Amino acid sequence: MNPVEALQAEFGDAIQAVEEFRGEITVTVDGARIVDVCQYCRDTEGLQYNFLSDVTGIDYLPQEPRFGVAYHLYSMYQNRSLRLKVLLPGDEPAVSTVTGVYPAANWFEREIFDLFGVTFTNHPDMRRILMPADWDGHPLRKDYPLGYETVQFSFNFDEVDKFKPYAKE
Amino acid sequence: MGLTSKLGELGIVTVKLEDTVNWARTRAMWPMLFGLACCAIEMMSTQASVYDVSRFGMELMRPSPRQSDLMIVAGRVTRKMAPVLRQLYDQMPDPKWVLSMGDCASCGGVFNNYAIVQGVDEIVPVDVYIAGCPPRPEQLIHGIMTLHERVKQERLEDWV
Amino acid sequence: MTDIQETTIWEGDIQQLKGLVSERALAGETMVLNMGPQHPSTHGVLRLMLELDGETIISCVPDVGYLHTGIEKNMESKRYEQSIVMTDRMDYLSPMNNNLVYCLAIEKIAGLDVPERAQVIRVMLAELTRINSHLVWLATHALDIGAMSVFLYCFRERERLLDIFEIVSGQRMMSTYFRPGGIWRDLPAEFFPAVRSFLEDFPRRIEDYERLLTENPIWLDRTQGIGFLSADDAIKLGCSGPVLRGSGVNWDIRKAIPYSGYEQYDFDVPLGVHGDVYDRYLIRMEELRQSLRIIEQALARLPEGPFRSNNRKYVPPPRSELGQSMEAVIHHFKLWTEGFSLPESEVYVRIESPRGELGCFLRSDGGNKPARVHFRTPSFVHLSALPAMAKGYLIADLVGIIGTIDIVLGDCDR
Ligand code: SF4
Question: pTM of this prediction?
Fold first, then answer.
């Protein structure tokens, strides 16, 4: 069964775009229907995308919709993969969690919440995962600075040294 | 180490108290088993068969800070790990030394970004820095020997 | 002296764990124990919250991120070639595999060819890395369970592998040897005798390890029947690699979606039956042997020819050409100052790392720096499956269960 045709037949307008690049199919899905689409992909005979490889966030700044969440599905029965993508607005991005369909998504979604600030509604445990709980901001957003510190060389040693914190006993 | 001996019939050796204490300290330094990242793997090789750091009195790695007197910061220290590291340092009994192993621990290394503490000397006072990413076991051993030299120069009143 | 109380990290307010531990813990009937981040058997800086009833684990809440290095963000500020060094430092037990997945992603977007010789060398080194990684796994896993001598033996053999890596790349661990379009330089002549003598010795060493462990009653007692994971659960939780195969699912990316010419090699994929810690141990031991087989075949069929692609849009010309050709100088200058640009696109590449599926999602926006790199790392996924594996077992078994999933915290937190 061709996954794109099957999805288009089943979901119609909710399939917003289909792209193919070097044999990888990307299907952009309406955020409101992502759980249904995942459920369909997993349970339909002929598709059987039973393995969720990866979920990742993308920041498309300055485009709008700004955020993307990409789901990489893989079917062990058919030996092929599919990328589903959801586009989300720049302020208060939120999408429903797919942990109900793929339990593996749990930590990936927490990671995206932590690093991009995309909220997953109905997620069982929406806390920060990588950064400390009291961290400000979401580091992987494009407008978040890298946090670069000036490197201390011999020519600017004293200059930088003034600002460098040192621990004392 | 200023060892003067008067080998009379009794075979008495006289030596300064300071030197003896320092000598004893260098011969039985117990490092804390505290691996953070890639450098910790090289630290493990240093203890394992080929390099065998127990030749230098480091037979034991203590996982508990209460029993150790040398902290080898082996790896990158993140902002999340920093308070833990400081707490471990505070729990170590005096006298204690810190060896910063690898570029990351010494200065942030290749990771000049939001997540990594740019040098562990922002958190704990460091005695010896070892360069390298990761430093070879020989380099770590050299760092330990350098620390030994340093310990031998120490005055007793520094620690009281 | 500093007051220790001042720097307490977690105040021990049990209510913070609401929803993560059972109701009984909130009422104080069961004990909540903190394990890590500084603990000898958590393989780095993993922190676990364990809810215990006596010695039985009722629930287990992992807390990761103590080694979050910001690699993905940092790579966005470096050119494609510059950021290869970062990938080594992710999963530091198998740096070559990390290089490989990143290079494969770049090559996929660029449509870059890789010469046959480079492919074979890549396979050979990736398999050597797999052996290297499994040796550290075996050493630490056995050490955690209490077998000290295995640790010493494994590290002895590992030193020989590190010497081989040093011969090819000049560095023991962080080799950064693979480049888009091939490898950094050709194999030096010393490489071949070193690998041959390793191939000769190593089968005997595997037997040594197996004699020490496989039928050792203590080892059997401590590994059999714990950390059970059914095939269904393993797939649902996203497990891959030896953890998945330990539950009997035959899925090896080297066979299913071959890359770098793995389809031309003859090797078996060992499968487990029970899905417990012991089965995964057996699988990894067998994988050591299969890796040796692959290396032998690769050595035998190593073709002559270029070791790096000739596509000058992406690959700088060799030093020898610089004196003769103006064009080469221009390419050299351009590639080392500005780097190459990739067309705007997104790809996802997966390979079989020693731990499982290692994926790289790469998005380029047409510039000379990646717009987004994401690594799907096996340790991260396997750690999220740890609560399911650890539930109901004794706290002493937990050490074995952590060991069996072979986590590398650098791989997990990136
Ligand atoms: S210095 Fe290098 S090897 Fe050591 S922790 Fe940092 S990145 Fe890893």
Answer: 0.90
